[in-house]
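Dear colleague,

Following up on Tuesday's group meeting, I ran the structure prediction for the two-component complex that the binding team flagged. I've pasted the input sequences exactly as they went in, so you can double-check that nothing got truncated or mislabelled along the way. The structure tokens for the whole assembly follow below. Feel free to forward this to whoever is handling the docking comparison.

Inputs:
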Amino acid sequence: MQTVKMVITGPFSSGKTEFIQSVSEIDVVSTERKISSDAERVKEDTTVAMDFGRITVDDDLVLYLFGTPGQRRFDFMWEILSEGMLGFIVLVDSVRPETFREAKHILEVFKAYANTPYVVAANKQDLPDAWSPDDVRIALKIEKSVKVLGCVARDKETVKEVLLELLYSILENMQAEE
Amino acid sequence: MALKGNLRDFSTTQLLNLVNLAHKTGKLSLDGQSQNALLYFKEGRLIHASTDADEGHLAAMLFKVGRLTQEQVNTVNSQGSSSDRVMGKYLMDARLVSRDDIVQGVKDYMLEIVYDLFSWNDGTFHFEQDILPAKDRITVPLNLDNVILEGSRRIQEADRLQDELPDLATIALKITDKPLRDVKLTQDDWRVISHIHPRNSVKQIAQNNNMDEFQIRKIVYGMMQAGIVELIRP
């Protein structure tokens, strides 16, 4: 059986935990804590170490999803979580352009960890003020060869589409290396 | 789909770059600390600009850029028409200005407003898709590449540039496929372009041209936003 490790990363409150929760077949192993900082109180809880989820695609393929903590003070976990990853997803909060710079920074950091495929998921597309995936691409200066996909983290179908796109890129990459 | 945000997080340069690259049509409202501005775009080109100070009517525009006197403005306004097209025809019939004067005057007025926006570091923006100015307004299409280049040259805040281009010693430049034919590059821009090579860091390019870090950052940032160059990171 083949296992594929994917890392789901992105700025604080971009929807990483929800993204994993909506598709994982096991209860997500989550390390959420109450938020102590007033400045970051846009939600109640935040991931402090990682989230872990699993999806069995078929008898031969299992995806392991690792979600990174969004707050900068836990960024020491990023490199640890990136070990052995075959691809990563950068989740962008499409309604908070103030987090785009952080998203770009995270993307560059993960690119530097490993030369693996990645996709950008423009989350919260169900909200009226969401920037479109095309606009997010320009705002983050994402190369044309990289997919930028719209998604809604609590909508299992759109999450599956994002995961599948990354999976295809990973499989292409593996075939090219063989 | 609306675009909303704050200029603290997404600058005027980045906004215009987005409109330019995505060939957007619509209205961009900017609410600054002391002034508000309205810009209209059609397929990625700036076609009209106004501020809440004078609402962008033709007589006010031409007065502001020195093509009409206050007395002439008063005469025009006494005609009672609020349509810029009617006003333009009256001005030409009265031989106060030519058609070229109107086009150039509107253009100068728009540029004056939009260049000023590059110095706004705070304020909210809101882009509404597919909204165009009223039909009676006179519009002049302007290529945003040149506006972005010139606007970036006017940025005076070293911090913002430092943020965009942090370590000049480790980044190099690559020229994109964008045609340079319609872009107005200055002598300094060309001097920088002539030294672009994957082995030359931006810092080396600056040294070769006797430019300080602020100067080179302004030039590189402007060319980046106009899509002329890309960064090569280590």
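The CA atoms of residues 124 and 226 of chain B lie 23 Å apart.

Cheers,
M.
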